[in-house]
Amino acid sequence: MLRLRGHAPRSPRRARAHGTLAPKNFDARSSLKKLYKPQVPEYFNFARNVLDAWTEREKRGQKPQSAALWWVSESAPEVRWSFEELAFNSRRAANVLCGPCGLRRGDRVLLLLPRVPQWWLLNVACMRTGTVLIPGTCQLTARDILHRLQSSRAKCVITDESLAPVLDSVASHCSSLHTKLLVSHKKREGWMNFNQLLRTVSSDHTCVETRSDDPMTIFFTSGTTGSPKMTEHSHCSFGIGLTVNGRYWLDLTERDVLWNTSDTGWAKSAWSSIFAPWIQGSCVFVHHMPRFDTTTVMQTLSRYPISTFCTVPTVYRMLVQEDMSRYRFPNLEHCVSAGEPINPEVMERWKASTGLDIYEGYGQTETIVDDACKVVPQGTEGNLAIRVKPNRPFSLFTKYTDDPERTAQCFRGDFYLTGDRGVMDQDGYLWFVGRADDVINSAGYRIGPFEVENALTEHEAVAESAVVSSPDPVRGEIVKAFVVLNPAYKSTDYDELTVELQEHVKRVTAPYKYPRKIEFVDQLPKTVSGKIRRVELRNKEWGRS
């Protein structure tokens, strides 16, 4: 069990008048080890073994009447698919991929779509065809997309009208790319049209037989010492491993409706908008919501029968600043949060308004070791790590794709190092302290300082820079840049230059990465070998000695 440092212990979901409910899938935390005993078969495919199994139960009348996917939008008719309809449409989508697109098992597919039903169809279609899905956020710039296409050697890219011109601007530099698939009602030169093809292909498709440890998906993750890396996950790591999330953390049943607000480009969307809920046969609720809006969230929780709400701490912080007395959430039973620590006062205000606790999730199984990989005594801060010998957990990511050196750096002795720090108390509870690396977690977005520093350095005014996190009451952390100027710019108006540099970063890389704070300095703290001491700057920002 992981607790966040400084947070009061919380009990399981108790019976309530209008507040926290008792858990549905377990009696007490101590029983989880006895209940959770996953078996990993030699062959496994989530579409065949899980989704098609729910379809058969629906046909036999063995499952409550509920949607598998419920999508709403303020600008389009809502979509409600049963598991049978999801299976039917995803088989057709699979035929688009392996037919007109010419994709084969193991080919990589870059998917850049917002929260639209086709995103879910294509996720399942890739499972059915054995193609390896690479999701990405729609906020990526041309440079971000080019890096992902060249690094992954993706053979197909799928996106909508908004990003198609950006893809066209870089496609000629990607020798592996041979298929561009457009999700749109309009045609575009040089692109196949997914919506049109979906209407013409057959709904008969035989799911490929994938081994449990075959690659299923790749996520790009930001690091501190280079460009984003590719993390590979197998069919079983998500398809079976996330059972613990769906059954025990989200505590879902076949009658539940789960709303997870995560962007489709992040792994959290796969965890809580596909695998965890559909393992449990629950309904995945989606609001298109191109831009986040607190009123829309409040109205949606009031208007629809959402029983489980999953979002990042930033959203909870924004919601509790609203007049929550204007809203009632009659169906809401369980609230969870992940991605970053949530403030205790936010949890208290949320519970005062809703009667519900917020349950925090930490996405890894933890052991605390020191730098020499020796387990430290209780009460001593150490590295959060996962024991991988003699038996490696199947739910752990497989590797950094095409990067054996980077993969090897994550493993030391008998452990996989998570990059986080923590303390185990005398009762055996783990308390999260912070990350060991320099990645910035702003409103749930993980931002590598190296990417922002590179973007800044491209501006002629910047000699060098260092990027760290800075505390923010709403986002938790924001990006702050310490900038050393070239001599010719040291007499420039700093306020004007700050805006100019911020706009420059927005143009060069994804807009969410831009530094919301910039401080101009004469020099940066460095080690004897010349490496920038970001830790010193970060400690200054956070008021640490």
TrEMBL record:
Gene Ontology BP terms: acyl-CoA metabolic process; fatty acid biosynthetic process
Protein name: medium-chain acyl-CoA ligase
Pfam families named in the record: AMP-binding, AMP-binding_C
Domain AMP-dependent synthetase/ligase, first and last residues per copy: 62-371
Keyword Transit peptide annotated: yes
Catalyzed chemical reaction(s): a medium-chain fatty acid + ATP + CoA = a medium-chain fatty acyl-CoA + AMP + diphosphate
PANTHER family, alphabetized: ACYL-COA SYNTHETASE MEDIUM CHAIN FAMILY MEMBER 3, ACYL-COENZYME A SYNTHETASE
Cofactors: Mn(2+)
PROSITE patterns: AMP_BINDING (PS00455)
Major localization listed first in the record, in broad terms: mitochondrion
Source organism of the structure: Scleropages formosus
Subcellular location: Mitochondrion
Domain of life: Eukaryota
Family that this chain belongs to: Belongs to the ATP-dependent AMP-binding enzyme family.
The protein's enzyme class: ligase
GO cellular component, one term: mitochondrial matrix
GO molecular function, one term: metal ion binding
Domain AMP-binding enzyme C-terminal positions: 451-531
The keyword Metal-binding belongs to this UniProt entry's keyword annotation: yes
Enzyme Commission (EC) number: 6.2.1.2
Keyword annotations: ATP-binding, Fatty acid metabolism, Ligase, Lipid metabolism, Magnesium, Metal-binding, Mitochondrion, Nucleotide-binding, Transit peptide
